[in-house]
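Dear Dr. V.,

Thank you for agreeing to look over these. As mentioned in my earlier message, I'm a first-year student in the group and I'm still getting used to reading structure tokens, so any feedback on how I've presented them would be very welcome. I ran two proteins. I've put each sequence directly above its structure. The first is here:
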Amino acid sequence: MAMAASSIVSLSGPERERIAADLAEIACAAGEILLGHHGHDCPHVLKVDGSPSSHADLEAEQLILANLLERFPAIPVVAEETCHDVPPADRFFLVDPLDGTRDFLAGSPEFAVCIALIEGNRPVAAALAAPGVG
């Protein structure tokens, strides 16, 4: 159920820190999945917009979605590969399981996992993992 903007209770600093720590843990786990595919011939398709979507994108996104659902079941998710048609609520998670798919597929270490909690159109907690660069 989406909350109206006026009904959102802002998160306290400690709550944001706890959520950011959870997001960092999830992003690092997704990064491990990506590293398992990096440097290998990773199956992929081209999306309607011409950008690639790989098996690694989907596998990392599945892990992220499962963890977010387990830890934050009341907060909807907008994710690049599978949950992009969900209209966001005033508070939602925004996920890019593999930012830099083209670089990833080309063997470059410059790719990242991005997860953010958005509240009232602003990020309030986020994590970024760049497993290819350490």
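The second protein is here, in the same arrangement:
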Amino acid sequence: MVIDYNSAESMVNGGSVLGGGGGGSKELGLRIARLAVELGTIKLIDIDDLPSDAVLITASAVGAPAAGDAYIEPSYQLKAFELLEDIYQKKIDGIIVNEMGGLSIANGWILSAATGIPIVDAPCNGRAHPTGVMGSMGLNRVNNYESIQVAVGGSHEKNNYIELLSKGSIDKCSSMVRYASVMAGGMVFVLRNPVKADYARENCAVGAMKQALRVGRQYARDKEVVMRINNVCTVLGGKAIDKATVCRKSLKTEGGFDSGYVELKSETKKYQLYFWNEYMLLESENERIATFPDLIVTFDSKDGEVINSADIVDGQEVYIVYIPQENLLLGSGVKDRELLKPIEEVTGKEVLKYLD
């Protein structure tokens, strides 16, 4: 299919839901998506449309959403591709996005429109996730795989513009990119991890782009807030937990990540929502309700807009929605228990025992 204005808007809306508190700004995602549609033709193809040895590259935005000086220009996608071609001198047959999110789902679209390289419906993950290695398709477990990652971000005017080219292990290169995002003021655009289509078919969230399209269309069917939320819950098999007011938010931006917690109170219950860029877990009076990679989404009670962890504020009234991981399309990276251990360190809460 060709992504037009209507499908682009639906995908960004659906991506913002599947971001689960992260995945970047929907407003920026819409601007980039519309610009890409104006720039050229963006084809979304199925992975089965490609030969097994076709080479795919991941497009990503890495950083802390709450960082005040984050700056990325659309042209950075083309600059990153130039850098990639310098270091990886093989033909790129397709682009895959690293995750879902209001911004993340549009990663690589400008590059696709400018070069004609199609977007392949096999994102690294069908929801948003905090770390680069979680979006690396299980390549951290592939012996002798050499990661290639290029990053561009920052502002020339603020003297924090940066270009990074890195080769090495998944862990080391991902850490370098995260550090580059800090140096660039909070965010960088990244192209990384060339893989063959047959590997992506087995390890990516095949079909997640079209799932986001379906979610976005259902979300936009109604303007009434409760109906919007019900539509999302129907298409994803989710549950509206409660309507609650934010009593307190604790946010720390450090090392290229946002982390903290949100305390909320409804008419009958209190809730604790912990985040590490994305919402990681939801509790009510010490009872666990949802644990990453379950999807937790907050919707503004006034207009039904998705509210990310970086944007939720004290006094805001939101609907809390939970979608079990079984109803999501997930990549290998978030199925690896070793990669989920750091969530416990960041949140100070147990995670792995709830995944058994």
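From my reading of the second output: The two ends are 39 Å apart (CA to CA). The chain has a mean pLDDT of 96. Does that match how you would interpret it?

Kind regards,
E.
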